[in-house]
Specification:
Oligomer: single chain
CATH architecture of one domain: 3-Layer(aba) Sandwich
CATH topology of one domain: Rossmann fold
Distance between the termini: 22 Å
Largest sheet: 6 strands, mixed
Structural class: alpha/beta
Length: about 280
């Protein structure tokens, strides 16, 4: 899949814990673009993937501080947005799916109430039209309107994640950022959920930035892969070619997924002093 014009442009993005001079960057001057394609940001826990997603979405919490030479979505300079600007952008143009639906859904409101609020937040539609739009979105994610009266706590993990996906897509955003969207699901549901997400993204002509630690999953579902290590992007390649990367970190990550073939044997260990300062930018 190709892209004509990048929807998201990130240049020299850094995230620090506070503004103290000399503090180590948790995300260190990374650059990336995402158009109408599926791009994966991969790496182990603590590499800075989720911080990158939250910095792009403008939802970092104090004392974390982000800076960038360019942070743009379409023609909008994200660095210049205030609260009202972000409220207009999030959900309508940029959407974020988190790994745990319990963090994204309000436990004391029904699913129907929350979906309706999401529609009303970004448009003026009569009640009947909102209900029709909600029902169509639920069908798209494989749910029925029976779920509208349910509270989030009564849903299984898979159903909860489908509801979150419906909420994030119901206003037809241009870019979906999915932060480990399948890690809270059992193995049988992971591929099913990601395949559904990719189908919906393609059908709606959207871009996808997928945050993941699962390189094998990324290789099946994404177009490009960016590999993070210690807050920097150290490798970039077509996602289907991850298995053939010559980069030592990418090669080690690919080899570390337990399987029947590796049962009873030691998994590869990376020498973390390997040229970690070199990055792909």
């Amino acid at each position: 899949m190709t892209t004509e014009q990048p929807e998201l442009v990130v240049r020299d993005l850094s995230v620090h814990a506070g503004a103290a001079e000399g503090a180590r960057a948790l995300v260190d001057r990374i650059s990336l673009t995402v158009g109408k394609e599926r791009v994966a940001l991969v790496g182990e826990s603590g590499s800075g993937k989720s911080l990158t997603a939250r910095a792009i979405m403008g939802v970092l919490q104090a004392p974390l501080v982000a800076s960038a030479s360019e942070l743009r979505f379409g023609s909008t300079d994200l660095r210049a947005l205030g609260p009202r600007g972000w409220n207009a952008l999030r959900g309508r143009h940029l959407a974020l799916v988190l790994q745990d639906p319990r963090r994204a859904l309000n436990a004391v409101l029904t699913v129907g109430r929350q979906l309706d609020e999401m529609v009303r937040l970004h448009g003026r539609f009569p009640y009947a039209q909102r209900r029709e739009r909600i029902a169509a979105m639920l069908r798209a994610v494989g749910l029925t309107t029976d779920v509208l009266a349910a509270y989030p706590g009564t849903l299984s993990g898979g159903m909860g994640q489908r509801v979150v996906l419906a909420m994030m897509l119901i206003n037809d955003p241009e870019l979906l950022i999915a932060d480990e969207p399948t890690s809270a699901l059992d193995e049988a549901l992971r591929d099913q959920m990601l395949e559904l997400m990719c189908e919906l993204v393609d059908a709606r002509g959207m871009g996808l930035l997928l945050i993941s630690h699962d390189l094998q999953q990324v290789a099946r579902y994404c177009d490009r892969a960016l590999v993070m290590f210690r807050g920097r992007i150290v490798d970039e390649c077509p996602a289907p070619a991850l298995a053939h990367s010559t980069h030592p970190y990418t090669r080690t990550l690919w080899s570390c997924r337990p399987s029947g073939r590796t049962y009873g044997s030691d998994l590869p260990v990376l020498d973390r002093d390997w040229q970690a300062g070199e990055a792909v930018q």
